[in-house]
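Let us begin with a simple case.
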Amino acid sequence: MKSIHRIPQGRFSISAGSEQTYDDYESEEHIEEGPILDYNDPTWCHSPSLANGEVTCVSPRGRSYRSTLGTRCEMTCDRGYKLQGKSSVHCLANRRWSGTAYCRRVRCHVLHLNPHGRYSCTHGFVVDSRCDFTCDPGYRIIGQHSRTCLADALWSGVEPVCTDDDPPKIKCPLSRIKVADPGVLTAKVSWDPPVAKDTADKTLEVILVGQGPATAFQEGATIVRYKVYDQARNRAACKFIVRVQVRRCEVLKPPLHGYLSCSSDGNNYGAMCEYHCDGGYERKGTVSRVCQFDHRWSGAPAECKQMEFKSDVTTASALLDQFYEKRRLLIVSAPNIADQEYKLQNLMIQKSGCGLDLRHVTVIELLGSPPREHGRIKERPLQSQVIEGLRQAFRISRFYFSMLLLDKRGVDRERFIGTMTSDELFAYIDDFLLSEEERDRLELHKDFCE
């Protein structure tokens, strides 16, 4: 569309910028439809405006004009906004601007919700909004405590994490002291296992290190430990002491010519000690004593006296009763004192007298036949009634050499119809007649006879 104005000297200005000259044309002709180019019109284009931004315009007519034809405007947005569209426009002849623009608010992406944590923001997710991070109780922030939305729609810093660095809490039972049970060096001790707590985890595994409750603890102090880990492997531990006391009596002294055999530890509460005498000696007094709770021994100490027996008794039972549970008896029978087997056996017995005493063996000799029959224990003679009683009770013949071994209860344990060396005799006694305590005692003193 062309706009034609009358101008001096016969020229027209066309909005397209070209000029045409018509001579002798002095009157106003037909004006085609379209804008009339008038640089003097101050509102050729509508007045520019930009919400949340600023418009800076330069007009051919000066700074005071903002919307005349040919005016050029620069578009800028406020902080926190980003320009969308043309950053520069100019006023066209069709009374419109050469482009459009608007300012869109800049937003950062929504922050992730941190496990075991939370955040709060001053202005949501827009520019210059600051979000502060906090963690649940029992957790600690690793990284920055806050982030700010920047003008480029990115958050400052990096996303922090919440870590569980608070160890669980556990409390052990109180330390305790208990007296050992009678006759032993231990005591059964019980307690309730501790309960652990954690600010982050609800379920915790409590681990016992060492001896557990309801078990027998040895004398002295025992340290009991518990430990616990949370899911982040934070560790807590506690400990307490179980102390077992053993009540004791003073150590008993063995009797002269004797010894003691004690149960348990020998002098602890409930221990029992028995008195024993060496060969050729017998116990006088109490058989055993017990250590009591008040640290005292029951009864009175026993003594070992040289064994005495009456050889002038008139019955075999009266003789045997004197040795009951005290001595073993080896009855040697021979037709006469000149019997070769007897002489050989007698010689070996005399040489092994010490070994017989260590094994609590007394020798009874029955020699000959009536009216010259006689019996003796060492050099002490026996009554004829006693000799006859022994032969009848144990069926001992007068006509050949034999030996009969009786235990401490007078029971016939073994018969020998020939001579026995001391080693053979002692081997049988050691294997079949001695108690465990007597074997231990013999082991300690066997070299005494050599």
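The second case is a distinct protein. As before, the sequence precedes its structure tokens.
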Amino acid sequence: MVHRSFCLLIQKLEEESNPNDVMNEVSRTHQAIRSLDKSVSSLEMELAVERAKRNGGLGAAVPSKGLPKVFVVVGINTAFSSKKRRDSLRDTWVPRGDKLRQLEKEKGVVVRFVIGHSATPGGALDRAIDVEEAETRDFMRLDHVEGYHELSSKTRIYFAAAVATWDAAFYVKVDDDVHVNLGMLTNRLARYRTTPRVYVGCMKSGPVLSQKGVKYHEPESWKFGDEGNKYFRHATGQIYAISRDLASYISINQPILHRFANEDVSLGAWLIGLEVEHVDDRSLCCATPPDCEWKKQAGNVCAASFDWSCSGICKSVDRMRAIHSACGEGDGAVSNFAAA
């Protein structure tokens, strides 16, 4: 009905107005329709949450009332052994102390290192994080047992915990060996603020590896068809973002979301059958210098940079500062972002 009215409006404007007026009115109406679609999507998700609550729920409830309202939550996936990586980010693109709190309060940009607990809660590994957290106050602790083969579970739990803690337009997952320009990232995401059910990242379709013993082996390769087939399109795992309605969907349906061997494939599988807009944003997968440096000099600052050969920045602890110096957007970039 909305789209039929839209067509009638265009026909009427063509009859009564000059071409410039028609295009201006069409643009305004198109934006209004996108905003309406976003509102309807949000209402549908709230109804789903209420149904889940009444029926005992399939997963964690997703309350939005009373939560801090922000623009984006950036969750940096990290491990117990990665303190040097975390410090390399704190020395470059992750603000420390009051600056971190100011970024959250004034710009609605939340940045946290995301980690679970060890197999023996309260042990030496957990206590080390307790000490670090007391000093930095930049962690998000999950009810999750850390482990390389548990990344799909961790991703699922992260989105559920994040959407239950902050009412954000977007939720980002990024690895702790990736360089990010927060100002560019927020501005790229702001383009899709009114788009319902949006999934932003560098979309790829790699081979399904059925051979045992190789990196990224997929034990359930048979589900993807004949040997030699490729995965469906999904965002590469170094960094991606999803809108609030998709994070809520993941939270509600946690127990029945199947986990494949690779975390990025798992997320793609959860979303592939939904009405989701896949945004292939190559600014989120620039290479390290000279690539991101040349792009910066040309006025195309990258949102994220890493080395494909290492699935992150090779030797990131040693190189992060130099990459930030060459490809960083500058301290004022996030300050210029309008969160509203």
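Residues 51-61 have pLDDT under 50 and may be disordered. DSSP finds eleven helices and nine strands in the chain.
Keep these points in mind for the review questions at the end of the chapter.
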